[in-house]
Amino acid sequence: MFRYIAGILTAFLFFGSVFGFLYILDQYDYVDLKPGVLMRLSMIPGWEEVYEAYQLGLEDMGLLQERKEALAAKEEALASEAEKLEAERQSLIEQLVALQEKEEYLALQERKIAEQQAGSRLTLQTGATSQDRHERAARLLEAMSPEVAGENLLKMPFEMGVAVLSLIEPRKASRILEKLPPEQSAKYMAAISGR
Question: How far is CA 54 from CA 59, 110, 145, in A?
C-alpha cells in the first residue's frame, strides 16, 4: 500500500514539476502556452468560450495600448502648449517692464523739467511717485527668472536699478546679480552697499 501511495505522489510531483517548468518558461516569454492551453480547454464541454474570451482580451489590450498612445500624444501637446504660454507670459512681463522703463524715463524727464520750473514742491511729489514705480518694478523683477530680470535691470537707468535692487529680497537680488556681467554686478553691489 505504501508503494502505491508513493508511486502516486511521485507521479504528482513529476507532473507538478513539469507544469511548473512550463509555467516559468511561459512567464519569461520563452514559450507561449496560453493560446494552445486555452484551445485545449475550450474542447471541454462548458468551456467553449474560454479561447474566445482570451482573443477578446488580446483585442482589448490593443485598444488600451492605442488609448495610452493617444493620452501620451495629448500630454505632449499640453506640455508644448504650457511652454508656449510660459514663453508668452515671460514676453508680456518683459514688455511690461520695458513700458515701465519708458514711463520711468519720461517721468524722469518730466521731473527735470518740473524742477527747473516749479522748484522743490513738485520734486517731493515726483519722488513719492517714483518710489511707487520702483516698488512695482521690484515686484516685476522678483516674478521673472533671474536671467530675464538681469537683462531688464541692465536696460534701466543705473540709479533706478540700484533703487529697485535695494527693494528686492536680498536672496533674489543676489541671484539676479549673479546673472549680470561681473563689472556691472560689482558696480551695482558697490552702489547698494553704499546706500
Answer: 9, 83, 55
Residue 51 C-alpha cell reads as 479561447
Q: How far is CA 43 from each of CA 26, 36, 52, 53, 58, rounded to the nearest angstrom?
A: 22, 11, 12, 14, 20
Q: Which three cell numbers stand for residue 153?
A: 535691470
Domain ranges of the chain: 32-193
User: Which cell numbers hold the place of 80?
Assistant: 508644448
Task: Provide the strand spans (E) within 44-166.
Answer: none
Q: Is the Cα dihedral 85, 91, 97, 102 positive or negative?
A: negative
Tens of pLDDT along 72-130? 999 999 999 999 999 999 999 999 999 999 999 998 888 888 777 765 554 455 555 77
Residue 170 C-alpha cell reads as 536680498
Rounded to two decimals, the pTM is 0.36
CA distances in angstroms from 72 to 12, 77, 78, 101, listed in the order given: 49, 9, 10, 43
Spatial separation of the C-alpha atoms in residues 111 and 51, rounded to whole Å: 89
